[in-house]
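Encode chain A's predicted structure.
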Amino acid sequence: MAHGAIRACLNTALAQKKIPYNPATHAKLPRQTRREMRFLTPQQAQIFLSAAEAEQERCGASDDQLHLEAVYALFVVLLLSGLRLGEALALKWSDLDGATLRVQRAVTQDAQHRKTLGPTKTGRNRAVPLGERALRALQRHRVAQAKWKLQIGELYQDQCLIFTNEFGGLLDGQNVTGRYFKPLLRKVELPDIRLYDLRHRHATLLMAAGEHPKVVQERLGHATIQLTLDTYTHVVEGLQQRASERLEALLLNSERGVARS
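Encoded structure for chain A:
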């Protein structure tokens, strides 16, 4: 990434005739290695969802912890939608259109490291349909959020965000990870994964279920389908094996049909 930035700068300098050639053009780069992803199995994903839903219900029933209900609702939505964390934290209630989330912005940082709302990573908007389980989590959260607003009154600075801190502002991703996500994993004895890995788990579950990569690409908001295929090569390989088995079964059934006739 550093080489790409430097090469682009030097290309500009070359075009402006400030340098005779671009020394970055012939640089030898180390081989790029991909970090091995860690995933929850489908059974572990179910355990995580049930635990998050139980915590959401517990916090929703407690006046002292009512505002924490938003955190666990966030976990459910992340796993069941495949949204980036920054996209989920930037969602507003107006973005929920029936059973569809309109992903139109993301949380970014300005030059002074202040969090603000900006465009998505690719600069494109997309629609993500939700299933009943994610919708239930959002519905429960909306009720709890309304109760919390009444409880603290004018201290709540309403920005119409879906997932907020106790005063209506943006949730801090690092705080959510360290104080709530990691402890929840330990509580139900699940592997130590990143919060971002919920997005990867969502994608692999879709791919393993036989969903077309193009659908997965659009749902995740990847810029190209090649990025989706490269990221989830291991799942695609498994689907290729399944395709071969289905082809052999089809031909075998056809051969039996010919023999009977």
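The beta strands are 96-97, 100-103, 106-109, 115-118, 126-129.
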